[in-house]
Amino acid sequence: LERTFSIIKPDATRRNLTGKINAKFEDAGLRIVAQKRILMTKAQAGEFYGVHKDRPFYDELCEFMSSGPVVVQVLEGENAIAKNREVMGATNPADAAAGTVRADFAESVGENSVHGSDAPETAAVEIAYFFAGTELVG
Ligand code: GTP
Ligand code: MG
């Protein structure tokens, strides 16, 4: 089984959508093996999104990700990385397929309700950034 890292972003926690989003993950066969609600500092968000530091939206993204609580989580399942990205839908909600998290809930391309790792290497780094191995219970 594969594991991926997921974040329910501030726009979604603000609207009490954590349960509805988790239901989509679980309905798709993903198991939530770790989960906690945290408030990221802007510096923490900046480090987490370091790969995007030269993109024009970087500052806005770090500001947004530290603007309210997020739920960080580890999802486990067969092909969890690809499956999670399928459930999330396209980055821009206008392009997201019907029934995906972003089609149903995202407010804009920036405030798009969820993050999900894009490859096994990034999943491993992102999980380790927020969780100790003992916090993952499969
Ligand atoms: P993540 O799972 O969050 O990484 O989404 P993604 O892989 O679909 O998108 P990408 O890695 O390209 O961008 C990371 C995040 O930056 C997105 O999820 C958005 O929150 C934000 N972002 C991407 N493009 C834009 C943009 O054009 N404007 C703004 N404001 N934010 C953007
Ligand atoms: Mg990405």
Description of the structure:
There is one protein chain. The protein is 40% helix and 19% strand. Strands 2-3-1-4 form a 4-stranded antiparallel beta sheet. The protein has 138 residues and is α+β, with helices and mostly antiparallel strands. The structure holds guanosine-5'-triphosphate and magnesium ion (MG). The site of guanosine-5'-triphosphate (GTP) has 11 residues, from helix 4 and strand 4.
Keywords:
138 residues, alpha+beta, 4 strands, globular, binds guanosine-5'-triphosphate, binds magnesium ion, magnesium, metal-binding, nucleotide metabolism, NDK-like_dom
Distance between the termini: 10 Å
Tell me the series of helices and strands, N- to C-terminal: EHHEHHEHHEH
Strand content: 15-25%
Number of helices: 7
Largest sheet: 4 strands, antiparallel
Task: Spell out which ligands are present.
Answer: guanosine-5'-triphosphate, magnesium ion
Mean pLDDT: 98
Q: What is the strand and helix layout of this fold?
A:
Elements: E1 2-8, H1 10-14, H2 18-27, E2 31-38, H3 42-48, H4 58-65, E3 70-77, H5 80-88, H6 101-105, E4 114-116, H7 120-130
Antiparallel strand pairs: 1-3, 1-4, 2-3
Helix pairs in contact: 3-4
Bound molecules: guanosine-5'-triphosphate and magnesium ion.
The site of guanosine-5'-triphosphate has 11 residues, from helix 4 and strand 4.
